[in-house]
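Task: sequence design from structure.
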């Protein structure tokens, strides 16, 4: 099976489920005058658009490297995740604004319809969350879609609870639940955006630090020192490094064996699969280092 085929199948299935749920929630949310149900419907509709973004990104990420994109198109995954994260923030903002307005302009809400279609939304979003859970573990783009579905399931569950409480005559439940769900959306969105922006800014991969990387390299027998280290992520699961390795005078065969040992250490202990290493003798100063690097305190 093609690398992109499994995520694509899951995303297409979730797309159609989400589209059906969002239309039903919007129509009956307007009928029942439930802000929570309408906001959930718009949230689902926004997620349907985000699923299209995810599908495009998965398709692009599966393309092979060429002369113009020498690392391939795998960063489409990260870009897709960023778009989804930003989209979630916009949706959260719209929901909060509408909820605040309803505090000052209250409307009668039909609780029974809220419960029925909130439950429908919950089932649809729960199924979508289950379908995307496994693919989301290895792809930030799919993770963005997964977060959309997971938060939609929570929102739909809140709509059901809100409908029950409204039917019992408890006021402002609709508005309060909408704001609480928006807070959850913001928290998850910020977490996703931090991860994607770190990759786009070519920051240190999650779970690694400079001392750990240096330790992996300097722990290999034959390495005298290492400097000009740059570590970054090509995608959420593909990490790369460039570094200058200082060694004593030795043969080409010995150097090749040393570089092979360093690459194996980086792969096993740091999860770095792409290593570009430059060898320098101990008595020659580095005149090709591209950036000044500060030691960690």
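Answer:
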């Amino acid at each position: 099976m093609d690398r992109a085929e499994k995520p694509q199948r899951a995303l297409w299935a979730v797309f159609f489920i989400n589209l059906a749920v969002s239309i039903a929630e919007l129509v009956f949310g307007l009928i029942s005058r439930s802000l929570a149900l309408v906001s959930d419907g718009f949230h689902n509709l926004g997620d349907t658009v985000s699923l299209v973004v995810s599908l495009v990104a998965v398709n692009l990420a599966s393309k092979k490297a060429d002369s113009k994109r020498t690392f391939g198109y795998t960063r489409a995954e990260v870009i897709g995740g960023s778009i989804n994260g930003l989209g979630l923030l916009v949706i959260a903002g719209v929901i909060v604004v509408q909820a605040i307005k309803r505090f000052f302009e209250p409307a009668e809400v039909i609780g029974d319809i809220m419960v029925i279609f909130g439950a429908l939304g919950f089932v649809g979003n729960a199924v979508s969350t289950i379908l995307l859970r496994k693919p989301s573990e290895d792809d930030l783009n799919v993770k963005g879609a997964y977060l959309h579905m997971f938060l939609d399931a929570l929102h739909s569950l809140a709509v059901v609870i809100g409908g029950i409480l409204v039917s019992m005559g408890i006021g402002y439940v609709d508005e309060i639940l909408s704001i609480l769900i928006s807070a959850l959306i913001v928290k998850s969105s910020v977490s996703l955006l931090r991860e994607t922006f770190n990759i786009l800014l070519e920051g240190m991969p999650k779970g690694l630090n400079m001392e750990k990387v240096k330790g992996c390299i300097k722990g290999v027998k034959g390495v005298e020192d290492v400097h000009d280290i740059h570590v970054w992520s090509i995608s959420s699961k593909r990490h790369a490094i460039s570094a200058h390795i200082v060694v004593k005078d030795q043969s080409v065969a010995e150097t090749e064996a040393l570089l092979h040992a360093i690459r194996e250490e980086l792969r096993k202990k740091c999860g770095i699969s792409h290593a570009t290493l430059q060898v320098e003798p101990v008595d020659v100063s580095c005149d090709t280092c591209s950036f000044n690097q500060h030691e960690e305190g």
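The mean pLDDT is 82.
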